[in-house]
Every structure is written in structure tokens, then in C-alpha cells.
């Protein structure tokens, strides 16, 4: 299970294990492919490894601190296999300026056996707009910086780094220097939308102070990007479960920010309308965004601080109950009140109701309800800086258990009081950072609700009403006049 | 006669005295108002004037058919007259003058004026009273407040050394008539008191008042809209607008409808003969139906979008 | 004893009474439902949103109250309004409305009903309209009987004249004020009828609530004393009047002085002097009565009249003196402008400029009241027929209100209740007469008559109509007795009239037995009445849904396919301000939009709809109507960051700033007559144009430039057309040197400009701009270079 949500968490959990004194592996080939995006950069590194001694099953990879900081997701697999390998980060000690991560292979390799290891990482906030401001009609260019060599505690026969951009328009990239003793011919080449560094041959173990001092160097690529760079500064999700209404209500409070180059000068509606008329919108303007909401949702609402936003459109897919699979989505074309230009913000609230059957299942044997709660709505190509997911269970839910797909920064249980509650409802809160498309998974919560708890609310309401009637009944019959009333003259 | 005198005076004036003195003489001659022609106009508005001047450019000749000029002239003279009453030293630093189109058409052309009456106030260009902001260009009086002397005096007072001591003349006739009327009323009261104490006089009074009010009388009063649009159309176009005649028609319609209801309520039940009663019931119901549908169609004229209609 | 149609004779009076009261309750419930439902068009067509302009302030204040508590609200100083002056809100509002919704909000939350404060505000008006219907029912019941009461309740429930100011979302003082008005009047009538200090006190309490809720409380302050005065003059003084009035006035006045915004006005301003005078007069008269009981009545009359007249004269003299000395403030502008209708236009143009202060043309009367407007005189006449004390109240109310409604459109609101009451009285009398099954017959004795009446009563309440047994059969019997006692009359319309007008109050005059012969006359009248009522319902529904249910914040237009298209430019622009400008950016706009900007954009504004500072507003008017060079210093002095204008030229939204421009000019002219002159904004022919023929002053004015900046380019070469003015805009649009276009909404309705800071090199911005553009041009094409250099 890939566990990689944040550094502090891991400093707590990580177990100190000593670095193998003599290297037990060597890399026959290391290929790193970087898919350059806006807010999210997708890095795939393939290690072709060869065991040097028997029974070695812990392979170690290394990251520079900067890379480590930006990484919000890491997953290691054997090439061609589905299930991810268990990974574990070592404690970071200050005199090394690189991080080690141990990957436990499914079965130990005997000497001279080879296998291919695929390590996927996702970097967030790895690019920044350059120039930092752009006029309404200008293009949008980003800069991305990475290290030339992939660090590894093992010696590497051949290593190559590919950087791929979406648009085949690359403004500039850095030429590596002082690498003659690895590179035979030209160490960097550009073809279309791709830049290749390397191949570099016969690298010594690169995860050493000496190597980094002498050879490691930052490579910066400056390229045009045609999609707006979208950041969700904050996502507050509240999921409220009601057994009476057989309904699950989900509500997201979202703060959007266009992290592209800040608008230079001012917004001119005329230019905007001209661009739209000629069907070539500026790359950093975000007029609308398409969201995938669950199938079978009802009465979706979309409002901000001053009321309904009348401009968005929704196509609902029919409901599908939990057990059977299906990949339909309700498509919401979410159009903010105004087009989102570089550096502009927009906050709004998006909510919907879904039939409980789609996400809740009841386990007869244990008498527990099990509900699955998606952590986030998928914002294509966007990063969610701070996320808070709050699951509000029905009133009177007892022995609550939950299992998040990956541990949260912080989670707590509180009480939430809403419509006609007498004793509030248990509410679970999870907090996350830097979520990306890979994190769009489900939290599983299971709880028990006694029959009496179900009846609590109607009983309370009934009592209230009856007391009112009773009072009226009495008040009607009590006569408080001091002396019998005279007839009006 | 007056102007003639002024004209006679002119040559000496130019010969002898300094311009201000001439103007003083002229104004005294024209008891407060200088009757200008082209030359005296230049004299009065000379670029190095130490005095201020208020000039009425008008066309009082019958042939010009300038009714506003006619209306405005008296109040102008009144204000000018009131200025003569101020002490000499202030009086001689501000002049009222009238320039008739027929005396000096050239001036009108020079100022590029096509309409009359117009009042220019020239602040002094030199001397102690020269305006602080140095604007010596004449300022035009805005007639939006009408031709009354009061506002005019107020406006001019802004440019005179001391305010123009203008007061509206007391309308003795009005007061007298009111007094007489009051007394007469008191006298008559003794005889008509039975009528006054009868509730039905009050009833009629009340109902008539509210009828008139609810048919938009105050609107015509405040907007002083015409009695009728002329050319026989007496219905003003537009939902927020109406003519004087509509008040009468609508009030009458309301009144008639109310009356027929009252007949149904108060008279019909007291009929002793079933036949007469039935007739009256049908009559008044019919009246209500017809008049009501007339009313509705009238409303449709005013409010085009109104979807409903009755029999017609 | 013949009846037109058979009646169930075996009903016990108790059954009748119970059925009747049950029917009454059901009817009232249904009426309330109808009243609320008919006000929800706006919510259903659009959304739950606050309407118009003033409600946005009330809403904002309520939010403060709900979030920070009453104490904070009470001394809330709002620095963002009237920048840089600020506004002491606690002391300058009628807090009744906010307090009401605050209480409701807290109550609901105490029940764990987490209702959004906005929804409370939106639905407050409909809720109170149901209460108004009930209050009107109670009031009319005092006038005639329950049946009339129910009719009146139904009328006021759905009559457009009241709906116009109480649809869901129009969260304004009037929303609750009309209920308070009617209920105070009801309590007053009760107090007067029973001479009960209790009801007088209740009236006083509700009067206090009214004072706290609406400036229109002055209407009550003068209505009740006027009523009392008339009663005295009619020689109807009684201990009941004395008790009722004294308790109301004493408690009510003291209570009303607790509202900070009112303070000592009740004893210092002319609007309140009438009440005080009548109070004094009452004391004298009461004293007179005391004396009378000791002195023989012969010389007493003289004594009384003499003293009354003397004190009257004395009082007026003192009052005059006080006013002259300035201890009593003379009539304030708004009220004075009701009497001297020319006053406002001349001296307070701001008040005159408000659309709801315009006089009312007859179509609006018919639109708002439909057939009630001509039933109303009939009802008044009926009040005259049976001239009890409370009827006099209705009569005075009728006269006063119809005058006020004629003078100001918004005062239609005060007319509506009395119209409903009077016409309900008329209509229910009609129905009583024609549903009553009793066939007239001659010569009968009191007893059978009385039975007849009771039977008739029982008969009527069966019908779907609101006719129910009269509360005091005994009275009716008396009337009937009187009727029966009458000798056989001579026929003839005159005697009819006499008989009819004589009414039941007179005794011993020839009155004939009344009643209707046969079914057909009954049926035709009833059918006819039913038809009119249903027409009324259709009318109300249509008017409400079409005229009164659009929240001027959101505009609706229909596409070609008839589907509704929502134009949401205002909120788009306001929200942009809120999200993408610094918290303390000062926004300048015409005062109409002040509250909306404060409410939705949450930014400081120069002026807003609380038009208390003429000079400040005139400053804005001046800035808008003078040239850029002259406006710039003004803008900088008030450190304005953004200027917001409303421009409807693209989609034909007629309520835009160019159409309001002349008011800005006028108001500015009132303060700076020699800098701004209205005539300069017209063409020499005196037309108001915006095309090539427009006057130079017009073209150079800031407002014109901001409205039409780059507008012509939108039409790319073609002739640009202003759809509101129906005029062609000059091909070469205006240029701006001191402002930058910051934001323009989708349909160009809202345009926001940023005020440039001073040029860094200390040049004036005009030349700086010219220089900059010269630079640019140099690169593109050589020709203008010379111009740039020279």
C-alpha cells in the first residue's frame, strides 16, 4: 500500500534500518520519464536491477530533499504487475542531503537475477509560471527544474532522463556541463515535445555527498503550457448520512485559484469576447471546468457567498447501486460567475444528494453499516493544497471504525448537532495536504445504529408537539379574568 | 421716452464722465434698469470693469412673439427696482440692464444667442470685488426654477456686494378676500348648520374626495399635466401617465359602480313589489357588468400587457 | 314566515356556533396559506435571494445582529459606509425588522434547526403577511362581523397593493409594519369600544413595536388623535375614549422614546404635536364632564364650549410660539413634501429623485386594488349608514390614506388595508342581503322576526361563504323589532332612500321590512359577485407573478425558444470585486448601488441608499458629471480605488446610469451651481443625446466616458447602437487617461474602472499616457511618430 502523504507523518513511523554495507544490487538501466503538466508533474522511473548476492529483497531508492518535498505520491511496482510493493522511508539524518526509501521486493532475488522496478511519483507545485505576469492575450509559459542524475545507492550502467511536455513548444532547456566522463556523445537532445538527457554510462553510486557535489546539477526547462494551471487552495468536504431519508448528502466548500501567470494590466471584456468569438481562448483563462460527480445524484446545488450561480450545467447519469460496478459519471460543467484569469480567486459551494444504497451497505452478521466516502471530487490537472473531509454519521451511531486509504495528517471525532437533534451526531474529520488525481480514493467507515436510536428523533418531535397542544388545551380552559367581563357598550 | 432720455444723455456721458458714473446715471434714469444698445453694452461689459452687472437679453417687441420674454420682464424689473433701494455705494457697484434684440441684434450675434430671454451675470473683472477664482466670464442664469423673481434675486445676490433686498409683494387682495370669506362662512354657518351636521353631506364629501384622489387627481396636480392631449385623444399614452380628463372619467366610472352596488345593497331590498325589485336587481347588475368591462378595456388601453378582458 | 329556500331546522344553536367557528378557523388557515404561497413567485422563478436595494442593508445589519448579538449590533459603527465618514448604524436605523428576524433565527437555532439567516430574512415578509390577514380579520370583525372579517382577510392576503412590498425577498420595514399598523388599530378600536386600559396598553406596546420598525409610525401617531378629536367634536366624548386614548398615548409615547433613532422627537417635532394636543384637550374635556356633573347643565354648555375654544386658541398660540422659538422642530422634509407637493422637487432633489416618491396615476391604483377600488366608496357609505365610533375611524382613515396614496406611490401601502376593510364590509353586506333566505313580508311580531334572524344566520353559515351567525343576535332582534314596528310605508324611491339611509340606528322612522323576493334575483347577484371575485383572483395572480416578483438584482429574459435566460451581471461584478480586490478598496458608484456593493461585494462605498448627506452625494454627482481632469482630484481626495457604473446600452437595460445621469447633474448643481450647469448637458436644441450630436460637456463627462469606453469597438466596424437610448454611438469612442477598465460584466451592464495612482515621474497622467502611446505607435507604424514627438 503506497503510504506517502507527508513528511512529518513518516518521520514518526519510519523505522531505522541501516544501509546495506556492501551494495546488494546494481542498476543495469535507469530511465526516468517526466510528464510536464501545470500544477502536477508525473514522474515514472524504471529501474532495471540486477541482484549481486542471494536473498537480497530490499531495494533502496534515493531522492533529493527538494524532490522529496514536492512529492505527494509514490508507488513502486514490478513491471507488468498490478499490486504495489510495500515501501518504507528511512529516517532522514541531517548530514546526508538525500532521502532513502526501501522497497521490499515480492520475492528475494538470487544472484545475477534481474527484474524491472517501476517507481511512479507525482510532484506538486513543481512548476512556476515564467514570466510571472502575462497580458490577457499573451501565452503562458512555465519553468520546471529537476536534477540531472537519478540518485541511487547502487552503481548504474546506463541512465537516461526524458522530459515530455504537452505542447511541442519548448522555449529553452539547460545543457548539462562537466559530464564528459559519463556521456559519450551529446548529453542532451530535443525532439519535438521531448527532451532527453543522457544516456550516461557507468555511473558510480550517485547517492553520495561526493557525487552530488561534483556532478549533480539542476536542469531547467522552459516551455509553453496550453491549459490553465488550476490550484484548489482549500477543499472542505462534509458528508452527512441520513438513514431516515436513505440519503447521503455531500457538500464541498472550494477555494479555486488560477496559479498561472498573474494578469498583467486589466481584464477587458471586449478582448475576452473576441477571443471566444474566434474560438482561440488565452491558455491561462479558465472560463469553466468539467467535474465528474457520482452517478445518480439528486438536487445538485452550486452557490457562492451571494447566492445561486445560475450559469453551470449538469448531466446526471442514472443511479447504480453499490455492489454492481459501473463507470458512469454525472458530468457537471461548472462555470464560475466570471472567467478565472491568472491570479484570480473564486470560492463556491457545491453539494448534492445521493441515494444511500449507492454508498452504504449493511452487514447482517455483525449488524454494522459500512459506508464508503470518496475523499475528493476529481479536479483534472489540479492539486488540492489543503483538504478536510468530515463524515457525519447518523445520530446515535456507536462503535465507529474507519480505515482511510492512506493515513491523514490528522483525524478526530467530534459531535455535530443539526436538524432537531437531541444528542448530536458523531463526526469524523480527516485532514490532508497536496491531493492529486491519484488520491481520489474512498474512506471506509463502519458503525452500528440501534433501533432505539432510529426512533429517537420522531419521538422527540412528537413530545414537543404534544406539549404545545397540552399547553394550549389548558390555557384555553383557565379563566384569568378578575371579575366577569361586561359586554362591550 | 426713458430710452430716448438715455440716448440723449449718451454723448455727454462719453465726453465727460468715467464709465461707472455714466452707468449710474443711466440706471437712475431707467429707474434701476439700464436700457442697453450695442455701445452701452460694450461699455457695461468692458474687460476692465470694476463693477458687476446682470443683463437680461430679451425680445419684448410684439412682432417677435416671445411670450416667455413678456412673462419674465416684469419680475426682472421688480428685482431691479428692489436694488435701487440699497445704499448708494453698494448700488453703484452693480447694475441691472436690459438689452432688447431689436436695439442691438449685433450683440446677440456676437454672443451667438438664438433664444430669449437669457440672463447673464458679469462679475467684476478688476478692483476689490474681483472673484477669487479669477473667472470673469459671465455666468448664465438657469430658468429651471421658472420666471419667479424670488429665485432670480437669490441667484443674482451671489454676485452682488450685498444681497438683493427683494421681497415678494404681499398679495393684499388675497388676504382680504380670505378674511371676508371666513367671516361670510361664519355668518352662513348659522343657517347651514343643519346641513353640516347631517351625516350624508359628510358622506358625499368623503366619497367624492377619495374618488378624486384615487383617480389620480394629485398626479395631474403635481405633474401639471394638460387637461387633454388635444386632437380629441384624452387618454395619455403610457401606464405611468394621465391627462386631466381621465380623472373625471375614471372618477365617474368608479362612482357609478359604487352607486349601483349601493342601490343593490340599500334600496333594492326595500322594494315592496317583487316585480319592481327584480327589475332593479337586473338593471343594476347589468349596469355593473357593462361599466366594469368598460373600465377594464380602458385599463387595457393604458397597460398594453394586460391579458384579461370582459364583455368588451 | 316564508323562506326562499329550505333550511335545516333541526340544528341546535350550539352545533351552528361550533361549525361556524370551525369553518372560520379553516378559512383563516387557508387564507394564510394563500397569502404566503402567492408571495413565493420570486423564490420559485429565481431563488431565495434578497431583492432591490434597501433590503440588502437590512440583510447585512441582520447578519451582524445574528452573528455578533444584539449588543454589538446596537452600537455598531460601520466604517465602510459613507467613506470616509462612516455611519453609526445602531442609532440611525429602525431596529424592529432586524430584531424580529434575529429573534426568529435564535429561536430556530435553539430548536436545533440550523436555518440560514438569509432564508429567515427572505421569508419574513410572506410570514408576516399571514399575520396581517389575521389582524385585518380582527379589525373588520369590529367593523361589521366575522363574515366581513374573513372577506377582508382574503382581500389583503392577495391584493397586489400589499404584495408589491411583501413578496419573498423584499426584506424591508414595510414587511412587518403593515401587520403592526393593522393590529395597533385593532387594539385601539377595542380599547375605544370597551374603554379597557388593557387594550390601550396593548395598542401602546404594538405602537412601540411599530415605531421601532418603520418611519411610517407617524401615520398612527396622527390617525388615532385625529379620530379622538373628531369624536370629541361630534360630541361623542365618553369615559371609554378617555381611558383608551390616555393609556395609549402615555405608555406609547414613553415607549417610543426608547428607540434611539426617535429619541425626543415625540415631544419636540411637529409631526407628534397633534397627539399631545389631543391628549391635553381630552384632559380638559374630561374635567369639563366632571364639572358638569356638579353644575347645572344650562350654563354648563356655554362654560364648556368657552373653555374648550379658549384652550384651543391658547394651545395653538403656545405651539406657534414654541415653533417660532425653534423649541419644536417644524415639519421635516419628507413629511412636509406630502402637503406642499412642490417642496421636494425644489429643495430636496434626492427625495424627489426616488421613483417610489412619484405621484400615483390612476392605472397604478387599478393595478394594485382592482375592483376593490370602487367597492371602497360603497363601503365608506355603509360606514356612514351605521355611524358607530369605529366607523368614524375607517372614514377618516379612508380620506387620509387616499390623499397620501395619490401623492406618493409608496403610500399606496397605507391605503390598501382600509380599502380591503371597506370593500369587505360592502361586499359582505351585499351577500348577507342576498343569501339571507328570508322573504320579506308585512306585519309580523318581534318574536318570529327574531327567530327569522337566527334561522337566517344558521342558514347562511352553511354556504361556502364566510357569512356566519352575528355575534350579538340581540342587537339584530332589536333592529328587526324596530323594523317590524314601522307602519306600512308609501312606495317611491325617495322614501326608499330615506328608509335605507335611515339605517337601523334611528328609531321610530318609517322603515319597511327588507328582503329579496324569489331565487333568481338572489342567484344572479351571487353569481355575479362570485364572477367578480374570481376575476380578482386571476388579476392578483397575474400582477404578482409579472409585475412584483422580480428581484431587480437578477434580471430574467427569455430566449427565442421561450426558455428563461438569467442575466446575472450585477452579482458577477460584485463577486469579482469581493474576490479579487483588496479588502479596503474604496468603490465609488451612484448611491443606488451603495447597499448592494456593501452587501454583496463587501467593500467600502462613498455613498449609499441611506441618503442623509446631500453634500457627499453631490460630490459623487460632481465627479461623475465633470471632466476627467476635474474629477481625478476628487477621486484621489476620497481615495477611491474603483469606480462602478451601470450601463444598459448593450442589452437594453433601461435603469442604467446614463438615464439617471441628469439627477446626478441636478444634485451636483444644487451644491456647485457655477461649476455644474444642467443645460450644458443638453444639445442646443435642448435634447438629451449621447450620439455625435451630444454636447461637449456631455461627451467629456466621466459618466459618459466610462459608459461608452470601447463600446463602439464591440460592433467591429458596424454602426454601434445604444439599445436603451435608441441612438447611434460615435464610431470613435472616448478615451480614458485617469482610469483603467478593470472589469466588465458579461452583458456589459456593470463596468468597473480602477483609478490610476499619480504618475511616478510626476507628469500629469494625460501626457504620461500620450507619451506611452507614442512609444507604442513608434514601433507599429511610423506616421504618428511625428505627432508623438511634437
From TrEMBL, chain A:
GO biological process: protein N-linked glycosylation via asparagine
InterPro entries tied to this protein: Ribophorin_I
Domain of life: Eukaryota
Entry keyword annotation includes Translocase: no
Residues annotated as transmembrane: 459-478
GO molecular function: transferase activity
A Pfam family it matches: Ribophorin_I
Signal peptide feature range: 1-20
GO cellular component, one term: oligosaccharyltransferase complex
Topology within the bilayer: Single-pass type I membrane protein
Involved pathway(s): Protein modification; protein glycosylation
Compartment(s) where it occurs, according to its Swiss-Prot or TrEMBL record: Endoplasmic reticulum membrane
UniProt entry keywords in alphabetical sequence: Endoplasmic reticulum, Membrane, Signal, Transferase, Transmembrane, Transmembrane helix
Function according to Swiss-Prot or TrEMBL: Subunit of the oligosaccharyl transferase (OST) complex that catalyzes the initial transfer of a defined glycan (Glc(3)Man(9)GlcNAc(2) in eukaryotes) from the lipid carrier dolichol-pyrophosphate to an asparagine residue within an Asn-X-Ser/Thr consensus motif in nascent polypeptide chains, the first step in protein N-glycosylation. N-glycosylation occurs cotranslationally and the complex associates with the Sec61 complex at the channel-forming translocon complex that mediates protein translocation across the endoplasmic reticulum (ER). All subunits are required for a maximal enzyme activity.
Membership in a protein family: Belongs to the OST1 family.
Subunit and partners: Component of the oligosaccharyltransferase (OST) complex.
Protein name per its UniProtKB record: Dolichyl-diphosphooligosaccharide--protein glycosyltransferase subunit 1
Automatic annotation (TrEMBL), chain B:
Gene Ontology MF terms in the entry: transferase activity
SUPFAM superfamilies named in the record: Thioredoxin-like
Residues annotated as transmembrane: 172-193, 200-219, 249-269, 281-301
Topological relation to the membrane, as annotated: Multi-pass membrane protein
Range of residues in the leader sequence: 1-15
Locations listed in the record: Endoplasmic reticulum membrane
Record flagged with keyword Heme: no
Keywords from the UniProt entry: Endoplasmic reticulum, Membrane, Signal, Transferase, Transmembrane, Transmembrane helix
Family designation: Belongs to the OST3/OST6 family.
Name the record gives this protein: Oligosaccharyl transferase subunit OST3/OST6 family
From TrEMBL, chain C:
Ranges of compositional bias, category Polar residues: 451-462
Cross-referenced Gene3D superfamilies: 3.40.50.12610
Catalytic activity entry: a di-trans,poly-cis-dolichyl diphosphooligosaccharide + L-asparaginyl-[protein] = N(4)-(oligosaccharide-(1->4)-N-acetyl-beta-D-glucosaminyl-(1->4)-N-acetyl-beta-D-glucosaminyl)-L-asparaginyl-[protein] + a di-trans,poly-cis-dolichyl diphosphate + H(+)
Locations listed in the record: Endoplasmic reticulum membrane
Protein name, per record: Dolichyl-diphosphooligosaccharide--protein glycosyltransferase subunit STT3
GO biological process, one term: post-translational protein modification
Limits of the STT3/PglB/AglB core domain: 584-636
Function according to Swiss-Prot or TrEMBL: Catalytic subunit of the oligosaccharyl transferase (OST) complex that catalyzes the initial transfer of a defined glycan (Glc(3)Man(9)GlcNAc(2) in eukaryotes) from the lipid carrier dolichol-pyrophosphate to an asparagine residue within an Asn-X-Ser/Thr consensus motif in nascent polypeptide chains, the first step in protein N-glycosylation. N-glycosylation occurs cotranslationally and the complex associates with the Sec61 complex at the channel-forming translocon complex that mediates protein translocation across the endoplasmic reticulum (ER).
Disordered: annotated span: 438-473, 771-790
Pathway(s) served: Protein modification; protein glycosylation
Residues in Oligosaccharyl transferase STT3 N-terminal domain copies: 23-422
Keywords carried by this UniProt record: Endoplasmic reticulum, Glycoprotein, Glycosyltransferase, Magnesium, Manganese, Membrane, Metal-binding, Transferase, Transmembrane, Transmembrane helix
Keyword Phosphoprotein part of the UniProt annotation: no
Biased composition annotated in UniProt, kind: Basic residues: 774-790
EC number: 2.4.99.18
Family that this chain belongs to: Belongs to the STT3 family.
Cofactor(s) essential for the protein: Mg(2+); Mn(2+)
Transmembrane segments: 21-44, 88-108, 120-140, 146-163, 175-191, 197-220, 241-261, 273-291, 303-324, 365-384, 391-409
